[in-house]
Amino acid sequence: MKYKFFIFIIFLFLAACVSKAPPVVIEPELPPVTPPPPQIEIEPLLAVDWHQLDGWNDDDLIEPFKVFEQSCKAIGQREQWREVCELSKQVSPLTSATAKMFFETFFQPYQVRNEDGSFTGMITGYYGPELPGSRIQTDKYRYPLYGQPEDLLIVDLDEIYPELSNYRLRGRVVGNRVVPYFERGEIDNGKNPLAGHEIFWVEDPVELFFLHIQGSGRIRLPDGELVMVNYANQNGHKYRSIGKLLLDRQAMTRDQMSMQNIRSWVNANPQAGRELLAENPSYVFFRELPSDYETPPGSLGIPLTERRSLAVDPRTIPLGAPVFLATSVPGTDKPLQQLMVAQDTGGAIKGRVRADFFWGMGKEAGSIAGRMKQDGQLWLLLPKNSDEQLQSRIESQPSDTGIN
Q1: What is the pLDDT of residues 115-125, one digit of tens each?
Q2: Residues 154, 278: one domain?
Q3: How far is the C-alpha of 310 from the C-alpha of 323, rounded, in Å?
Q4: Surface-to-core class of residue 37, CB atoms within 10 Å of its CB (0-12 exposed, 13-18 middle, 19+ buried)
């Protein structure tokens, strides 16, 4: 009996010393991994023939030719544009036919493409508002336009960080720190941190808000004098669309969205309207222009031309370049196909096939500009390759082309 018990104890001891074999785990068979397709970078410009420009043959090119000549005052010394700007002076007599010959002879059209390869983008409109105002504050004129304040700090980053050459840092110094500049709500909340920098006073804060969005306009003084004011600088805060906020909050449908309806909504909801305006932190500072300006200058420094100047994203379309636009007249199916000139930029004009159509000055221009949000296509016109090619084309032209 003792022997059997001893054997049993030895068996337990040996069993404890022997490790159990791990269980066999059968891994499920995984499907083969498919690598993502390689990303294809779409070049922004596609060379095309002139007949591919929708409506090219129907436009009267005299006025856009003159607008391009005005742009040559700003770009005419740049290598890419020097020769073709000189050649524009030789077009005589100037007719639509000789202007057309000039563009077709010395330029190559390129259709502008989006990053996904599509050709269609959004075309909006802008204008120069006209606001009743005064150089002094009165009971009627209570809302200020500010000039650029002295404490606005502007730092160009390209010398330190070349990859940030398109960016500027704006702020103000508090103690030994640079902090963001005042937002719209801080400026307009009654504490008046910019007191002393007023250049004009107007009667309608909503109209003043839209002047900020447009960037330029006219002030009609009590004696009837018209004074042009133009963008001088900005507070460094990113623009936020109050139209998009109204859409997100279902206060307005996309079909209802227009500058006129936004203005009506703000006026009908005074408290909520003021709070809505303050949600766009961006704030524009203005300068007064000399009396000979009938339209404001664009980013190129050249006065804009009604219905022929275009604001673009200069990362794709160089300022000063002719651009053919194919879209439609706001509120209709009527084609709007004509040659424009890229003379301006804008904070909301970002993207390849994206442009803002300058409709002119005053209420009528504002009425149509505020309704414009159309699909459209763009063709960029760039000078052909070399000076030698340009000159050889001039010499080979028959005498009746008007290019001497």
Answers
A1: 999 999 999 99
A2: yes
A3: 8
A4: exposed
